[in-house]
Specification:
Order of helices and strands: EEHEEEHEEHEEEHE
CATH topology of the largest domain: SH3 type barrels
Helix content: 10-25%
Distance between the termini: 17 Å
Number of helices: 4
Number of domains: 2
Radius of gyration: 17 Å
CATH superfamily of the largest domain: Ferrous iron transport protein A (FeoA)
Strand content: 35-45%
Length: 157
């Protein structure tokens, strides 16, 4: 279970809110808008300097200041392959790429539902994977188009 502040997530990562911090009126407002423990949140966009962060929670979009997003703790459920640390096992959820790259990755055995072990995740260098018993090296750009979920993490919303 990877727990991070909401401000550290990048688009299109998803997670489940486990704690809403802060005090006073701002915390109350966040709770009133649906930013509550157990809600699934998806990061849609982050401004160039990290402020504000646009999220989707309970079916609607919301923009938060970075200081507000730092007080919200999120258990990461979906991430991009390029951000997975070495040694982790993940399941491929989706390929957010054009049909040509999707076909190329499918030919290499990288399809939705397959289990992958990250052998090395050099940033910004190559991401080396174990896919169905074979080693595969992907560039950081290609790896950032692959959505994954950690082994044993549920997807119920």
């Amino acid at each position: 279970m990877v727990v991070k502040p909401l401000s550290e997530l990048e688009p299109p990562e998803k997670g489940r809110i486990i704690r809403v911090g802060g005090k006073g009126g701002i915390r109350r407002r966040l709770l009133d808008m649906g930013v509550v423990t157990g809600a699934v949140v998806e990061v849609l966009r982050v401004a160039p300097l990290g402020d504000p962060v646009q999220i989707k929670v309970k079916g609607y979009d919301l923009a938060l200041r970075k200081e507000e997003a730092e007080k919200i703790q999120v258990e990461l459920t979906e991430s991009i392959l390029a951000r997975v640390p070495s040694g982790e096992r993940v399941i491929v959820l989706a390929l957010r790429a054009g049909w040509g790259l999707q076909r190329r990755l499918a030919d290499l055995g990288l399809t939705p539902g397959v289990e992958v072990k990250v052998i090395s995740s050099g940033r910004p260098g190559q991401v080396v994977l174990d896919v169905r018993g074979s080693r595969l090296a992907l560039g950081h750009g290609v790896a950032s188009k692959i959505m994954v979920r950690a082994m044993g993490v549920g997807t119920d919303e």
